[in-house]
Amino acid sequence: MTEFTLRNVDHILTMDDHRRELACADIYVAGGQIKEIGQSLPIRGEVIDGCGCVVTPGLVNTHHHLYQSLTRAVPGGQDALLFGWLQTLYPIWARFGPEEFFVSAQVGLAEMALSGCSLSSDHLYLYPNGGRLDDTIAAAAEVGLRFHPTRGAMSIGESDGGLPPDVLVEREEDILNDCIRVIDAHHDASDGSMCRVGVAPCSPFSVSRDLMRDAAILARDKGVMLHTHLAENDEDIAYSLEKFGYRPGQYAEDLGWTGPDVWHAHCVKLDGQEIDLFARSGTGVAHCPCSNCRLGSGIAPVRPMRDTGVQVGLGVDGSASNDSGNLMAEARQTMLLQRVAYGADAMSAREALEIATRGGAEVLGRSDCGQLAVGKRADIAIWDVRGIESAGSWDPAALLLAGPQKVRHLLVEGRQVVRDYQMATLDLPQVLERQRALALQLAAR
Predict the structure, then answer these.
(1) Quick one: fold of 3-58+370-423?
(2) Against a cut of 0.90, is the pTM above it?
(3) What backbone phi and psi angles, to 5 degrees, belong to 149?
(4) Where are the domains positioned within the chain?
């Protein structure tokens, strides 16, 4: 049984039901669970010194496209809006295969871990040349992060009025059959699960109404969650009005895509009625501020969402539209953009950090994660605040105002994934060398 004592922590931000903050405290972990939190606990198992550190729950990433870590800063897509950006990158992604999906997931998840993330979702919606969701699941198991992959899909190609090229779309019967296969093979609904699978047709402009409806029925029959992109930018809204005759929120509701088992990515352009709908139904949102900025999509109304009762988590989105996979940077950007939109007191550093931890866990239906409390899983991020980023800070717990964006230690299920700022579970330099070779091959072709 893995057992350790994290002792002499300067400050613990628990994000528990009472939002307790503890000074000069210890945490005892055994069997992947938090067993005790308090002052002067007896030393048991391995000791991790928390002197000079702030401890938080592991961060939670609610939206990613891990495969895109192979296509950062692609010329032609650097300055485009969403639809033009996609049309630039689709032909490149069509050349991917199993190795590209596996290696890009290794790199993307390692980058997430180094930013303090212990639980990440992934939205993989294209499967050329024999690629499968299983490739990314294998990568996550090697990295050691808790994983929520979603079996995405595209079924309407250019010849049928959709956005993606025909070579990247699948038959809808094949999509649904593979969703069943992946769920049966990999989904674990138990507390402490390291892998839960979701069903995730890509977007309203790349799948049919029938597939959206059938996917919702299948997911509920299997007891798994639903995920898609929604209301991402003005083009998205215009497409919905032209093709369906109403806004994305009504489209989602009509097809069974609202409820506590559903979370939508972006939601930049939700109006007041749609926000109320999401609050009433318990529908979650994955907020991706850096990607939204990069693609010129706008500032999502997170403050009104939170005030109305919508569950909001953070997502880094894909590295082709973000260029980074740092969840602490995403949390800081969330705080800053809400202040730009609604005033300097619109969002505190602690609230943004709560969205990045407990908020994301709630969106993904993980009541066992996202907070530091007895009985919760031992997903723990340890931040050293003795460096230059926090020098002179009067409030070391305000990490998003003056704190590091790289974690010193990260524990997931009580196992050390990051140790002294380095990956402890894989040979990252070797993985990066393979990543560079694959990216060069894609660029050369």
Answers:
(1) Urease, subunit C; domain 1 (2.30.40)
(2) yes
(3) -70, 150
(4) 3-58+370-423
pLDDT per position in the chain (445 positions), as tens? 589 999 999 999 999 999 999 999 999 999 999 999 999 999 999 999 999 999 999 999 999 999 999 999 999 888 988 888 888 999 999 999 999 999 999 999 999 999 999 999 999 999 999 999 999 999 999 999 999 999 999 999 999 988 889 999 999 999 999 999 999 999 999 999 999 999 999 988 889 999 999 999 999 999 999 999 999 999 889 989 998 999 999 999 999 999 999 999 999 999 999 999 999 999 999 999 999 999 899 999 999 999 999 999 999 999 888 889 999 999 999 999 999 999 999 999 999 999 999 999 999 999 999 999 999 999 999 999 999 999 999 998 899 999 999 999 999 999 999 999 999 999 999 999 999 999 999 999 8
C-alpha 146/C-alpha 197 separation (Å) is: 11
